[in-house]
Amino acid sequence: LGKAISLLESLEVSGAHTEQAQLQLALAYSYQGKVLDSGAPVAGLVPNLPAALAQHRKAGAIEEALARADPGNAALQRRVMGTLVQLGDTAVKLGDRRLAVEHYRRGLEAAEKLARADPANLQAQSDVASVSASLGSTLAQDGDTAEAFLLLDRAAKTLGPVAARDPAHTGTRSRVAECDIGLGYAHAARAANRAVPVEARLGHWREAKARFQSGRAFWAEMRDRGLTTGSEAAKPDEIDREIAKCDRALGLRNTPFSPAPAASAEVVQPRE
């Protein structure tokens, strides 16, 4: 991959770079970023999140320039959207939620534009839901529960029917799981607000735990099937820590994880 990038970069310097070669270079940057971000761990090499962020930025710069020159190219516009989301994901892993929110908002704007241009396109609608969930989850972790619930509610309402049509589709299931995890963070943040009545806070803690368990069930299954690496393989352990926080808030003992019922994308918010 490194050799391919060097060759494509040399074409760019020589002025012999066609649009197709530019797209290939952007794709190579993106692949390298994903390997550095979430590939199988290699001591001292992977993960390397700052380097991953830099590669995704290079890919995005090329794609955005090409997209500006060809605004009617939906496939290219979707690549721009995807790279913005990848930048947001990497920023989250770096602990920079402000930067993540910035990229997710731009990604959501791009996804919404594509969805408006083709309302019958289920993939476009699913993209809007997925980015909404990512943005909502990140906002929830920063305590902005009002906007987070709006975004996650929107995502859940879109993903529910999609998941019902094809319940075995791994991509859709992962989006539902991430939406549930986002709702877990949103309910936990609302529960931590001491201005909320005690009974309502307990209700939010219970709902947060249920959502975290539902999202964890999917990622644990993927890990057990050997389908995840890096940060994705670590998700069940990460979510276990959030479940433990819920248990402590509810006055429960930490008990071994037991799978929750099948995930539901319907949003149910305890009354305050």
Shape: globular
SSE order, as H and E? Answer: HHHHHHHHHHH
Low-confidence stretches: 255-272
Cα distance, first to last residue?
A: 53 Å
Rg, nearest Å: 20 Å
Strand coverage percent: under 5%
Total helix count? Answer: 11
Number of strands: 0
Which structural class do you get from the secondary structure elements?
mainly alpha
Give the biggest sheet: none
Helix content: over 70%
Mean pLDDT: 89
Quick tags:
single chain; 272 residues; 75% helix; disordered C terminus
Describe this structure in words.
The protein has eleven helices and no strands. With 272 residues, it is mostly helical. The protein starts with a helix and ends in a 23-residue tail after the last helix.
Question: What is the secondary structure topology, with strand pairs?
Answer:
Elements: H1 2-14, H2 19-38, H3 49-69, H4 74-93, H5 97-117, H6 122-141, H7 145-165, H8 170-191, H9 198-224, H10 230-233, H11 235-249
Helix pairs in contact: 1-2, 2-3, 3-4, 4-5, 5-6, 6-7, 6-8, 7-8, 8-9, 9-11
Quick synopsis:
By secondary structure, the protein is mostly helical. It has helices at residues 2-14, 19-38, 49-69, 74-93, 97-117, 122-141, 145-165, 170-191, 198-224, 230-233, 235-249. It is globular.
